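Researcher: Here's my situation. A collaborator sent me these components and asked whether they could plausibly form a single complex. I don't have experimental data yet, so a predicted model of the whole assembly would be a useful starting point for our discussion.
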Amino acid sequence: MSVRWWNKPLFWPLAVFGLLLLLNLIFKPEFFAIRYQNGHLYGSLIDILNFGSPLAIVAIGMTLVIATRGIDLSVGSLVAISGAMACLTISRGDDQHALSLVLTAVLLALLVSIALGLWNGLLVAGAGIQPIIATLILMVAGRGIAQLITSGQIITVTSKPYNFIGAGWLMTLPFSVYLAAAVFLFAAWMTRKTSLGMFIEAIGCNPTASRLAGIRSRSILLAVYMFCALCAGIAGLITSSNVSSADGNNAGLWIELDAILAVVIGGTSLSGGRFSLTGTLAGALLIQTLTTTIYMLGVPPEITLVVKAFVVLAVCLIQSPSFRRSLTRGIPWSPAASGQEVSRHG
Amino acid sequence: MVDRKYVPLLVTIGLFILMFLAGSLRYPGFFSLQVFMNLLIDNAFLLIVAVGMTFVILSGGIDLSVGSVVALTTMLSASLITEAGWPPAAVIPLVLAVGILFGWMMGAIIHYFQIQPFIVTLAGMFLARGLCYVISINTITISHPFYTHMALAKIRLPGGSFISISVVIALLVVALAVYLAHYTRFGRNTYAIGGHESSAVLMGLPVGRTKMLVYAFSGFCSSLGGVVFTFYMLSGYGLHTVGLELDAIAAVVIGGTLLTGGSGYVIGTFFGVLIQGVIQTIITFEGTLSSWWTKMVIGLLLFLFILLQRVFTARSTRSQSV
């Protein structure tokens, strides 16, 4: 095989991930401490899994969309809408603790998400609008819809069963981790054990050729956008139930960018045609570890954005063939600030 | 019969006039020169930023960093003037240079390493926003006499209305952009790259240089927009203009510029910004509607205009697939 080990898609995210853990091991050994208390596990590593699960879920949906050479900018708004929908339904009920009410609320929120995903899919597959623009509409209008649902207020609920989704524990681990694992396994099973994954990659490689080859690209695109919206809806439920409230303005703010970042770090190319769900998972964990590490090291958390910027650039440059060529041939490239940052890894 | 390429532009202008008239019929006191001038006063910075975005979108790219660059400019100006005591005459050229350099660097990465503009400018957006917080996480107010003068000065116009100095700057930028787009080689190259990049390369046009200039111009517009926004807010803050990039893109699209590049007019963007302003004004006049309706109406307009574009491109080229 001509693919060398450092060219494998999973190598770079895992290498940076390892580097981050090593950094923590040297400067903050207590980072790895895990306590067992009242039947729950506590510690930074558990926190990473817990807080990283909404991002991981959104990123898994985003991976499939990006694999079809698309992009979904509306997931952040969908997170807000789904949380708002669920909280509104629960706050209207007589007995907030009733399990049936919570199930209705969850079902309703997820149905609304899927319906909005269908809208995105229809614009992309039906009307043939560029995905970045088609989903931009819902990204702009979606925040307004979320505000409309909550009437511009933050809806607070006291429902215990609802709170369990985002803040409950099951068998020593946070419940949201199981949700993320379930979504991941479902997506992996659908794409690797059925031919769906291959169809998705075929659409991403060459939409026209795959249609001529008999792949029903429209239905698959619709399904992919609906799945992505469903993922965003689940993430919205976790986010809002974790704090037992729905905030139309700030819930899921910028999560679309983090999700795209996780996908790109994971080795899925933005030009479509190939994807790695494991890579995305590694990417999402990497972003969450980065955030937690920055908190732990006592660096002002606002710097996270600067670090993220350099990570995005570094990962993209490593993936860029012309950048690798300029490295190996020693051709002088532009004096971009990221140049030095990357050459340290490369 | 009008040339077909002007139809989206005419639709935009028509829509603006229609909305303004609808507002005038419904609300007393709406139909006045001052209401129109207020549209310009309140949206001067958006207009400047959207003009830069127009060039980027015309070239087939996108610039997500504009909102953050505006915030960075306000932050940099405020900290240099209030905390370091620099004179505005030194600060303003400096922040403009920072904006130009920032845009040029993003353009260089996009061109030399063939990375999608979307992801490069996303990184730029994170970087600029993060740098704001590196300077300070709090609001820094500006009380320098030059800035307060720029904020309060009114230029009286015949008819009893007035505009601010920012509006004059914004209109000058629009005039400069129209000149650049239609009367210079740079403008024609930008249209050519947006129309078909490989053809532009084969024709021997300086694609790389033009691309970098386009992003540098957008960086310049963003930082100038930031300077104007500083006049408007008299403060620097890392959370200023969150989501401005969406407003700018929406203004460009509503203005009839094709998001795939190669077709559109700066004047369209001008009216795109005014339409957003009218929506806000109508919602203010209505009184009972909340501000989030603005977002929904803009989303709806985006949808209609994108659909309109789709109809036009489908008619002119039959090669679109999926």
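Model: Some features of this prediction you could bring to your collaborator: Chain B is about 75% helix and 5% strand. Chain B touches chain A through 49 residues (CB under 8 Å).
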